[in-house]
Amino acid sequence: MTPEVEVALKAAGLELRRADGGALVLAGDGMELRADLSSMVPRLRPDRLGRELLVRAARVRGAGAPTAVDATAGLGEDALLLAAAGFSVTLYERDPVIAALLADALARAADDPALTDAVGRMRLIEGDSIAGLHAMGERGEHPDVVFLDPMFPERRKSAAVRKKFQLLHHLERPCDDEQALLDAALAACPRKVVIKRPPKGPRLAGAKPSYELAGKAVRYDVIVPPRA
């Protein structure tokens, strides 16, 4: 365990431990949380994957080997959907504890035949995506899609969702600079910025999307920057 992880855990009153079976578990307040991508397998079936709103929102015409950046990776479920749909995905997670949980989940998923191919297209970077996206733009490394899902309290309404994310809220707070996050996404010069929002939630940084795809539980605002 790195010193950064130890400091973050101590400050939040939490602990990381290995559960039976070897998975890394975050524990505190009488609850436990682990990142487990195996629960996503049913959603990755070809007959279901193409109907996922995120996959539809991120789809890029004419991209034979599309690339994406998940700038707010969390526990990696959205990035897995993109990877299963053929994207090579770079995942940024700034919180060291959440990054440790996600790295553990990716390592275990790599040994799962149902997930191996998709996980092989996922690369985790522990660090600030705002700095990372600006650096990508400066290097001329332009992803096809930048995906943003900043933690947003209004979406955490149901008891089940609150229970799942309560421990994470000890570590990582909702986005406190939406404009900086959106500016960084655009600075990477992607073909699309896809933003996950609650169905009736406000626009990220007030930005009007080019179009949106909405379901009962989530909405995706899609910004298509003008091509140079």
What does this entry look like structurally?
This protein is α/β, with parallel strands linked by helices. It has one domain (3-223): Vaccinia Virus protein VP39 (Rossmann fold, 3-Layer(aba) Sandwich). The protein contains nine helices and ten strands. Strands 6-5-4-7-8-10-9 form a seven-stranded mixed beta sheet, sandwiched between helices. A three-stranded antiparallel beta sheet has the order 1-2-3. The mean pLDDT is 90.
Mean pLDDT across all amino acids: 90
CATH architect. name? 3-Layer(aba) Sandwich
Helix/strand structural class = alpha/beta
Order of helices and strands: HEEEHHEHEHHEHEHHEEE
What is the helical fraction, as a range of percent? Answer: 25-40%
Radius of gyration (CA) equals 17 Å
User: What fraction of the residues are assigned to beta strands by DSSP?
Assistant: 15-25%
Shape, principal axes of CA atoms: globular
Summarize this structure as a short list of keywords or feature phrases.
228 residues; alpha/beta; Rossmann fold; seven-stranded mixed beta sheet; 35% helix; 10 strands; three-stranded antiparallel beta sheet; 9 helices
Quick recap of the structure?
The chain is built from nine helices and ten strands. With 228 residues, it is α/β, with parallel strands linked by helices.
Ordered list of secondary-structure elements with their pairings:
Blueprint: H1 3-12, E1 15-18, E2 24-28, E3 31-33, H2 46-49, H3 53-58, E4 67-70, H4 77-84, E5 88-93, H5 96-109, H6 116-119, E6 122-126, H7 129-139, E7 145-148, H8 159-171, H9 178-187, E8 192-197, E9 211-214, E10 219-223
Parallel strand pairs: 4-5, 4-7, 5-6, 7-8
Antiparallel strand pairs: 1-2, 2-3, 8-10, 9-10
